[in-house]
Design goal:
- The chain is an alpha/beta fold and about 260 residues long.
- The chain has one domain: Metallo-beta-lactamase, Chain A (4-Layer Sandwich), CATH 3.60.15.
- The protein is about 30% helix and about 25% strand.
- Helix 9 links the parallel strand 12 and strand 13.
- Helix 1 crosses helix 3 and helix 8 runs parallel beside helix 9.
- The two termini are about 15 Å apart.
- Bound molecules: zinc ion (2 copies).
- One zinc ion binds next to loops.
């Protein structure tokens, strides 16, 4: 198992997940060329991917999908309404529609998209179940609904949104209406909101948590890590905490195959 945030933040998001012999991207918000460059920095070529999963239509998640899929003949998995909201995606030969709440298979993986309350047409997070355990992915969350909480239980690796520190957002430079949007149930999760979610889903089998979609203006990595570490310590769990970066790939979490019951 290998997980790496190739890019994370409001200027582009893409996550590499390699599990059970299957290599996937969740979102591709960088340019195609920059995605290829970051993949090669972790020793992979785009031709080695088995597909791209799409969470929602915002540009920071989809900008590179069309060029990558066409250049490397990659399958793209996307919600039907999200696809309809993306006329600029262009023609994709190998395109598959999914519906939130309906698990689908890719190679040996079971992939479950679940709905979130972010301000997009039909945004989703994912869980990916394999013989190597379960990975949970939830960024651009709006709020952590009960559905989200239930889906993310029993994961070996979590990728969770940690968008802003509430005080930094309040005191920061954003206009009032943008602050309101970020704080709303259709916006982004703060560090402390994400930690409340984590309290419900942390367990002894959690090996790594990635902090994703950090705001460059309204958060700072040390603050986010300290907030999460305190929550995890209070829960009695000690997974690796890995920060997603905007300008470079994150540290790669790598684990040997262990059957998780
Ligand atoms: Zn978004
Ligand atoms: Zn986003």
């Amino acid at each position: 198992m290998r997980v790496c945030l190739l890019a994370s933040g409001s200027r582009g998001n893409s996550t590499l997940i390699e599990v059970d012999g299957c290599r996937l991207l969740i979102d591709a918000g960088l340019s195609g060329i920059e995605t290829e460059r970051r993949l090669s920095a972790v020793g992979l070529a785009c031709d080695e991917l088995h597909g791209i999963l799409v969470t929602h239509e915002h540009h920071d998640h989809v900008g590179g999908i069309g060029p990558l899929a066409r250049r490397h003949n990659l399958p793209v998995f996307i919600d039907r309404q999200t696809h309809a909201a993306l006329p600029k995606l262009g023609n994709i030969d190998d395109l598959h529609h999914f519906s939130s709440g309906e698990t689908f298979s890719l190679q040996n993986l079971s992939i479950s998209p679940f709905s979130t309350t972010h301000d997009a047409i039909n945004p989703v997070g994912f869980t990916i179940q394999s013989s190597e355990g379960k990975i949970g992915f939830a960024t651009d969350l709006g709020i952590a609904t009960r559905l989200v909480t239930e889906q993310l239980k029993n994961c070996r690796v979590l990728i969770l949104e940690a968008n802003h520190d509430e005080q930094m957002l309040q005191d920061g430079p954003y206009p009032w209406n943008l602050k309101q949007r970020i704080r709303s149930r259709h916006g982004h999760l703060s560090n402390s909101e994400s930690c409340l979610l984590l309290e419900d889903i942390s367990w002894s089998g959690l090996e790594a948590i990635f902090l994703a979609h950090l705001s460059e203006e309204n958060n700072c990595p040390d603050l986010a890590v300290n907030t999460f570490r305190k929550t995890l310590t209070d829960c009695g769990h000690h997974p690796e905490i890995i920060i997603g970066r905007q300008n470079r790939a994150s540290y790669c979490f790598e684990a040997n195959l262990v059957k998780v019951s």
